[in-house]
Amino acid sequence: MTGIAVREGEHRKPIHLGAHFPGVNNTTVWQVPEAGSQVDFASFEHLARVAEDARFDFFFLAEGLRLREHLGRIHDLDVVGRPDTFTVLAALAAVTDRLGLAGTINTTFNEPFEVARQFATLDHLSAGRAAWNMVTSSDAFTGANFRRGGFLPHADRYRRAAEFITVAQRFWDAWDAAAPQRVVHRGEQFTVDGYPELPRSPQGHPVLLQAGDSADGREFGARHADAIFTRHGTLEAGREFYADIKARAAAHGRNPDHLKVFPAATFVIGDSRAEADEKARHIRLLQVGPQTAINFLEQVWGRDLSDYDPDGPVPQEDPTFDAVTQGRTRQGDPREIAARYRARAEAGGLSIRELVIEMTARQQFVGTPEQVADGIDRYVQADACDGFILVPHLTPTGLDDLAARVVPILQERGAFRTEYEGTTLRDHLGLPPLSAAGSERRTG
């Protein structure tokens, strides 16, 4: 793989980068001495400082609302739970100056006034760097932690989310220098009658991110979001998704350039491609240990598979679909999923563990610093995305090597900033300012 040459005068589409704090995912490696805490503030601060020194757009904090259970026990398929999102991001606002601060807050189990107030507070404390990753939930298992409990059908959770963001935006826009404006809303999900408690924040609204690849999720994101967090990893799938979501934004009367697309991606860097490949193989074996492989397959088969050898063949029996795992679901008919898994395993001669490693793989950049830079740049220049949310496998030092060895290459190519040009996250992402009414200001 060779570097991407930059000809004099050639336009380079700017790359945007977010740094995902490891923990709430199945990529984090905890079994090595260098792995740190996912709850110590020093871990959050380290990753944020490294990201800001490298001129990343934002720090991204995911969130889990309930510990997952497997066969009635808390399991370690991945790590869930950490200190409260707003508390962590507010603390990070005090130790960073330019880095955007993005938090995942659920629209199913919160209330619009409270979330609007919390994000307005964060935007004030950070001088305009707040971002909200809007997510929904439809499972009763998570809901059992909350007063209402129960669950929402898939389509209803987006209807609630749309009404939620509408009410929140009305609170953000209701402040007037002369006097706060009253917010009155009566809808299917919310009945609200009140006033905002804070002056308009530096960005007006936090930057709105959304994660959802379904048709409903795409429509919601195209209408409401400033950035989309997607799982599409291959170049071809990325280009298809990118074209689709931009077209949907245009159909809603929006400028497609004002909706950014961010796939998640992991990375492994070595002094040679062979070294990077070996490191990547070792990391995947740590991420998917024998018990994790069996646990993963039990979620599909719906039965206890503890008698199976993780290094042996995939079960030939059909799933029973008993609820052995709560808090994590597979989309679709279990029998069809199992058949697809069997076919994949047979075609590749894969054991259970090898199959799970393959099926859970994210988009991954593996190679020398130059090769990793090539991969990131290629996706952005080919309109497969506008940038990446990078997911390190180590807490909190997993971003250090990429920041030191890959980012300078992207900067030399003119595809990534060497300094922040603005002060707010909207500035970093190239989004226009908002008018007092919450819409994009039109110029020209």
Automatic annotation (TrEMBL):
Keywords: Flavoprotein, FMN, Monooxygenase, Oxidoreductase. The keyword Flavoprotein applies. Gene3D superfamilies: Luciferase-like domain. Pfam families: Bac_luciferase. It comes from the Bacteria. One of its GO terms (molecular function) is monooxygenase activity. Residues 35-382 form the Luciferase-like domain. PANTHER family: ALKANESULFONATE MONOOXYGENASE-RELATED, C2H2 FINGER DOMAIN TRANSCRIPTION FACTOR (EUROFUNG)-RELATED. Belongs to the NtaA/SnaA/DszA monooxygenase family. This is NtaA/DmoA family FMN-dependent monooxygenase. It comes from Tsukamurella soli.
